[in-house]
Design goal:
The complex is a heterodimer of chains A (about 100) and B (about 140). Chain A is α/β, with parallel strands linked by helices and about 100 residues long. Helices cover about 35% and strands about 35% of the residues of chain A. Chain A contains 4 helices and 5 strands. A 5-stranded mixed sheet of chain A has the order 1-2-3-4-5. In chain A, helix 1 runs parallel beside helix 2. In chain B, about 30% of the residues lie in helices and about 25% in strands. In chain B, strand 4 and strand 5 form a beta hairpin. The two termini of chain B are about 25 Å apart. The chains are: A alpha/beta (about 100), B alpha+beta (about 140). At the A-B interface, helix 2, helix 3 and helix 4 of A face helix 1, helix 2 and helix 3 of B. The structure holds adenosine-5'-triphosphate (ATP) and magnesium ion. The site of magnesium ion has 4 residues of chain B, from helix 2.
């Protein structure tokens, strides 16, 4: 299961992911990101402290977010080691700011 | 790919529906088996991703969502775990799949690369229109 909490604070978007992102739950993430009014967004931070699992379907969705906000700084915070490992393997740790 | 015939090999077979909801069942089964075998927590995380990637491909490319079933075989042998994911889909040519450009990430094309990185051995047997078997092997570290 996945739950997503989005906090919008002026031009800053914080997305907290709790649970698992896989082929079943990834549409929730995509829909949630699509529902955000993107005109004001400058900074995006994904809080992954409680994200237990992600695979290529979720990584693909995050790359999609990067594509939608080419001018934004996208941060990824508090990754668990298994999640961080996939970011390293796929080179995503180079396109996002890791905190 | 021959089925293992050694005396000490134990096989657990899962038949899953082509419904995305059930990929997590393949992960849960994996956790149970790999944990019993003595894999480390980190190795189990790697195995979970590999089996999910293979199941996701069976579902996404093997045929339409919510239709065909696919199968996962977990073959347990005291020093290694062999996982076969088998579908009856359209098949593909492994040689024709290029490695992803990691400097220029795309939204798809990462799954097989991730599997190869995380597992010790990967073998794909696929024929046009008669399906795919992907065999992934992870050895138990001493
Ligand atoms: N079981 C399968 N049946 C048919 N084709 C497959 C199968 N598995 C993989 N393929 C082919 O190999 C390609 C690469 O697979 P891979 O998992 O690397 O990427 P993807 O599934 O397209 O995207 P991602 O895994 O990043 O979400 C697929 O696009 C598909 O053409
Ligand atoms: Mg895939």
């Amino acid at each position: 299961m996945l739950s997503i909490v989005v906090n919008e604070d002026k031009d800053r978007l914080k997305v907290t992911l709790v649970g698992e992102v896989d082929i079943y739950t990834v549409d929730m993430l995509k829909d949630k990101m699509d529902s955000v009014d993107s005109t004001e967004v400058r900074d995006i931070i994904f809080d992954m402290e409680k994200l237990d699992y992600i695979d290529s379907t979720g990584l693909g969705a995050l790359i999609g977010v990067k594509g939608k906000y080419p001018g934004s700084v996208i941060k990824v915070a508090n990754m668990k080691s298994n999640v961080a490992r996939l970011f390293d393997i796929t080179g995503l740790s180079k396109i996002f700011v890791i905190e | 790919m021959d089925v293992l015939t050694k005396d000490d090999a134990v096989k657990v077979t899962l038949t899953l529906p082509g419904n995305p909801e059930y990929v997590s069942v393949a992960r849960l089964t994996l956790s149970g088996i790999a944990n019993r075998m003595g894999f480390s927590v980190d190795a189990i995380e790697d195995l979970k991703v590999a089996v999910s990637e293979a199941c996701t491909n069976a579902m996404k490319h093997g045929r339409g969502k919510n239709s065909e079933n696919y199968m996962v075989n977990y073959i347990v042998n005291h020093e290694k775990l062999i996982i076969d994911v088998c579908d009856n889909g359209v098949g593909f040519q492994m040689d024709s799949i290029a490695a992803p450009d990691l400097k220029n990430p795309k939204e798809s094309g990462l799954g097989l690369y991730i599997i190869k990185t995380l597992m010790d051995e990967v073998e794909v047997k696929s024929e046009k229109n008669s399906g795919t078997v992907i065999r992934m092997i992870k050895k138990l570290e001493e």
